[in-house]
UniProtKB/TrEMBL annotation:
This is Conjugal transfer protein TraI. InterPro entries: TOPRIM_DnaG/twinkle (IPR034154), TOPRIM_dom (IPR006171). Residues 11-87 form the Toprim domain. It comes from the Bacteria. The lineage of its organism: Bacteria, Pseudomonadati, Pseudomonadota, Alphaproteobacteria, Rickettsiales.
Amino acid sequence: MSLQQSGIKGNIIASAGISNLRNYSPFPGEKIIIAADNDSKNTITNTITNNTVIKAAKTLEMKGAITCIVKPPENGDFNNLLQSCGEQSIRDIIEPEITKLTKAVETTKLTQTENNSIEKQNNITNVKELYNKYSKYSPVTIITKDIETALTIRQAGVEGKILCAIEAENLQNYNPGPKEKIILAVKNDVNTEKAEKVLEDKEAVVCTVKNDFNNVLKTQGLYAVRNIISPEIRKLNEKIESIQTNIQPGLCPKH
């Protein structure tokens, strides 16, 4: 009722329980926001709530939906938020998530032609750009070793440029922009030290994220993949801000 009262457009369903959602059949690519409670003050309740909500998102994603989880910033639920901060406060939280979901749906629309044209191989011998969609807020380049991982990250709706070329010799031919944010997304057994050095020598800001992203997608869903990548993008943003703060024109270095 609080969401409806705030003027949020869409189909509002009061049923986030796993058992209830098993009977709900979303259409392919349906955008679903799970509006959950914030129980951060109660550790036990918060853990139970988080697990239930994540399972709900996974259940829906396995049926082809695109989901995200949204909570009020403070402890409580959206009814509390409506009473304390008004209708606009709810719109300010929900509406940006609708925009993000719309973009995520666009990225998952791989046509059969695209699928057939992408050669699935484990050994990439050159820099292959799979996808390029920059966010005006946080452009980032994600470099993977294999095409499957690149497709997984694309399907998760992570915005940015996605390349397949983790080998250092391949990256010799890649010229990043000044302070370009680059994430090397690889499995745990992949060594990225040489690749990092090649990119850092070209003045990129680099970090490595290790995980089996394809397995995460299969077992935990799109939300879990985004949950791994998004914090690293924020860290890179903070690192660049720190670098820019430390470089102040007109100041001489202390000897």
